[in-house]
Sequence to fold (197 residues):
Amino acid sequence: MDGATQRSCMADELDIPDTTKLTDSWTKTSVGDYDRIQRQSSNTIDIVWQYSDKVTASLSAQTDSYRVTLPYSWHNEVSTSVDDSTITVTDKDRPNYSLCTFKVSSDTNAGDIGNSLIERYQIGDTPVQLWATRWAFVTVTAPSSISAEDAEDVTELQTGDTVDYESLISQIQSGDYSGLFTTDEFLKVHITVSSLS
Fold:
């Protein structure tokens, strides 16, 4: 680059202009759901993109004893509700179907393949459990419980859209449940449970 013009791939994707005058101090600009933080150091332009505080806040829920931070891919896709020490996350368009539930419990019951304990967290003295219903399994084993369309949409959210839904249903119908655990993996990697401090 000759320094006269500079475009980051994010600026290009969002179709926004670059800041033309940069200094060696970081400059923060709000751009919709993102904050662009940039500076110029000699002949190098450093750019950092992050989700805005508004987006981060929309993906966080808390009780009196713990906080949950949800995946960024769920922005504008989910609703959260807090009932005492339980946090439930549902598909925004399908509020009858939870993506996952967090509750304070030290119960050792792990549920079954349809509705299971996915992860345990110890937040100070508070034992928090993450539970999820595997809707792809439910649609095969109890089809009157959820429509195939709703199950597909909820499963796509639960897995970060990393599974081929039709293939997953075929696996389940053949007795192979291994693909169901993509839900567990996605939730474990992309959800954070932490203390309030």
Q: What stands out?
A: The radius of gyration is 21 Å. The helical segments are 9-14, 53-58, 135-141, 148-158, 165-173, 181-190.
